[in-house]
Amino acid sequence: MIDLLSYINEDSIIELESDKTDLNNIVLYDACLNDLSDEIIKDFRSRSKSIKKQKTIQICSGFTLLHLRLAIIDKIRLVVGIPPHPLRNGKNQRIHAIFCIIIPDTKSRTYLSLMAHLVRLLSQPDAKQIFRPGNKKQIVKYIKTFEAS
């Protein structure tokens, strides 16, 4: 059973400073990889042209996802980016949070379970009000309450 708290905690929630998608993508991917060796990060950044331009996909109203497979990691890495204000996407919808997930090739099933659990969380009627700047503790508390139900 997936426990979202094993993936999302106060340290994995990042308050973004920009409303520019390409900069946010780089910040989020870097945060996912921050504890890896310099060699792995350097290799990853060498591909940054495509990462900068990677599009986010909507997973629920108000929430988007960046995801990437990376064979050299051994566990799923997830960070949540909270923009300084809700961003507008191409469909003129407001985005309250961006989830960035890097998946090792060996964890496809776990990833699918994680996504299903995450979508159930983000589909709750009050999710958009919780995911906002300066609200890390409340986000974690919200997830804890969701997991207990």
Describe the model:
- This protein has helices spanning 21-33, 38-46, 48-52, 108-122, 127-130, 136-148, and strands spanning 13-15, 57-60, 63-69, 77-82, 87-88, 94-95, 97-103.
- It has 149 residues and is of the alpha/beta class.
- It has a single domain, classed as Mannitol-specific EII, Chain A, CATH 3.40.930.
- It has a five-stranded mixed beta sheet with strand order 1-4-7-3-2.
- Strand 5 and strand 6 form a beta hairpin.
- The chain is globular.
How would you summarize this macromolecular structure in one to three sentences?
40% of the residues lie in helices and 21% in strands.
In terms of topology, how is this protein built?
Elements: E1 13-15, H1 21-33, H2 38-46, H3 48-52, E2 57-60, E3 63-69, E4 77-82, E5 87-88, E6 94-95, E7 97-103, H4 108-122, H5 127-130, H6 136-148
Parallel strand pairs: 1-4, 3-7
Antiparallel strand pairs: 2-3, 4-7, 5-6
Uncertain segments are none
- Give a short account of the largest sheet: 5 strands, mixed
Text of the CATH class: Alpha Beta
- Which structural class should the secondary elements be placed in? alpha/beta
The CATH superfamily is identified as Mannitol-specific EII, Chain A
